[in-house]
Amino acid sequence: MNAERQAMHAGEAVAEALREEGVEKVYSVPGSHIHPIYDGLSRVESIRMVTCKQEPNVSLMADAYGRITGKPGVCLVTAGPGGLNSMAGVAQAYGAASPMIHIGGAVPLTADMEAFHGVDQPAFVHHMFEHITKWSARVERIEDIPEVFAKAFHIARSGRPGPVHVELPRLSDYSEYILQETPAVLPPYKSIPPIVNAPDARDVDRFARRLMEATSPVIAAPTSPASSPPSRAASPICPRSSAPTPTVSAS
User: Fold this and answer.
1) Which domain holds residue 225?
2) Mean pLDDT across the stretch 187-202?
3) I want to staple 63 with a disulfide (CB 3.0 to 4.6 A). Which of 1, 93, 142, 160 is the partner?
């Protein structure tokens, strides 16, 4: 199977992963560390690139996309300040259970000490995102790209949705390539279905009894379409409980 596939660079592998996951839009601010991904995406007609003026807007727009559609919003930022400047929107998505794939460039694999914004730890951005995402991954081998992105989308969609951070280092400070210069033949991309946890029937019965026995109940329904339309979700309950149902924002 692998012999029938063409060799590709890291940017093309990322583009293939996004295409196979059904991504329609990518919000981004260009940067030299992610140009290979731009190159790969330029040959995917089904994906529209949305260029933003500032990195904070990149993650905020991806968060909004995730809340409105229920699908992972995808954003792409360059290394170092590009990733850090976008952290607010990622943290907001984490708190609001909004699915997001946050892709970033990273400190080159062969960077010298203090060569990149005076920071010696190559994975410092990766570790910062560990605290505001469901999963943070740093790819250091081109052959790991399909598996990492399949896992990233799986985690972002499963259970309580949320953001995932994936970063890919450039080969060197002035290299045109991510991870390695030589293209590689990678296995076909295989998406991993999300895990949707059904509520325990005993919990449903317990909360239903509490609601029906309450004297002045109020149902606060979420406005996020990802959580299903509030009117549809609450409509079977409201007439029986006579409970007012205001909608609330997750932000």
Assistant:
1) 201-248
2) 91
3) 93
